[in-house]
Amino acid sequence: MERPTALITGATAGIGHEFARVLAGRGHDLVLVARDLDRLTTVAEALRRAHGVRVEVLPADLSERDQVERVADRMRRPDQPVEVLVNNAGYGLRRHFVTGEIAAEEKVLAVLVTAVMVLSRAAVDGMVARRRGTIVNVSSVASFISTTSYAAAKSWVTVFTSALDVELAGTGVTATAVCPGFVHTEFHQRMGVRGRVAPEWAMLSAERVVAEGLADAARGRVVSIPSRRYSALVALLRHLPLRAAARVNRRLGRSPRWEQVPATGPSDGAA
Ligand SMILES: NC(=O)c1ccc[n+]([C@@H]2O[C@H](COP(=O)([O-])OP(=O)(O)OC[C@H]3O[C@@H](n4cnc5c(N)ncnc54)[C@H](OP(=O)(O)O)[C@@H]3O)[C@@H](O)[C@H]2O)c1
Predict the structure, then answer these.
(1) Is residue 213 part of a domain?
(2) Is 270 among the domain residues?
(3) Model pTM greater than 0.90?
(4) Alpha-carbon distance 191 to 103, whole Å?
(5) Residue (of 112, 17, 14, 111) closest to 55 by Cα position
């Protein structure tokens, strides 16, 4: 029998790499997307060797529309259908919107939002026709907090995924937004945050995020918030009166993590 195929963006590090590892372990062939070809090749070879699955590499910068289109073309190939799409690639800017550069904002929005939209659209035609498929969009707990343009982009991902799930009802295709809190990955390092980003009790492992995210996707849950502590936090945030929520947002928005850094610093997330 043909093995199912999963396409994962941002598959060379952190959460995306863990999705690749777990799905390969469950017998999926893989299509791995990221920018760094050397790293893609190394990760692909390790996964082939460990799990005996087929692994394609598809180098693409998802901030570039034509490169997103190449990935969308792969999604649409009828001869090697993709049954699981994981829209995971992403990064954050360590700058306030009001003092940052609009070009950097447009670039990150293209990765966090446009690529997710284009690839989800490319996925659904084939999935609906086959009456099976899984779309996992990696969002964030930040999508429930109104600070930073990153949180705004992740809010789009969470709401978009919920809207997609509504439209897909009864088709056999599911859409799940996985919303992690702080996770041990390269994310904050790439942003230029030095030292600890949060106390250890607030940090999750990529293993846990992916295990809970995939379990929730298999149950057809539309929003997955890994760990009880972050589920409780989100429940609390969603039930705050508007004025109290605004106070929380102002407090979080003043966090020193978002301090201004020199424009030439490593904080454009382009890594
Ligand atoms: N870590 C956290 O605390 C946290 C919390 C909540 C949500 N998230 C979300 O989780 C997702 C994964 O983040 P992570 O923490 O695993 O980060 P990570 O360890 O920095 O990995 C990011 C991955 O995305 C790829 N990538 C980055 N920019 C890209 C681009 N323009 N085009 C294509 N690929 C790109 C990177 O590879 P290349 O550099 O080779 O392209 C890498 O494979 C992101 O959407 C992030 O917003 C993270």
Answers:
(1) yes
(2) no
(3) yes
(4) 16
(5) 17
> Is residue 186 a contact partner of residue 18, using CB atoms and an 8 Å limit?
no
Q: Report yes or no on 271 lying in a domain.
A: no
Residue 52: CA count within 13 A, CB half-sphere: 3
Domains contained in the chain, number: 1
Mean per-residue pLDDT, 135-151: 94
Q: What's the rounded mean pLDDT across residues 100-112?
A: 97
Chain centroid offset of residue 137 CA: 5
Average pLDDT of the chain is: 92
Q: Strand locations in 148-239, DSSP E?
A: 173-178, 223-224
- 91, 144, 150, 182: the catalytic one is 150
Query: 146 lies in which domain range?
Result: 5-260
Please report whether residue 30 resides in a domain.
Answer: yes
Can you tell me the mean pLDDT for 212-224? Answer: 98
Mean pLDDT across 2-28? 97
CATH at 232: 3.40.50.720
Instruction: Mark whether 150 is an active-site residue.
Output: yes
Q: What is the mean pLDDT of residues 119-135?
A: 97
Q: Is the distance from the beta carbon of residue 12 to the nearest atom of ligand 1 less than 6 Å? A: yes
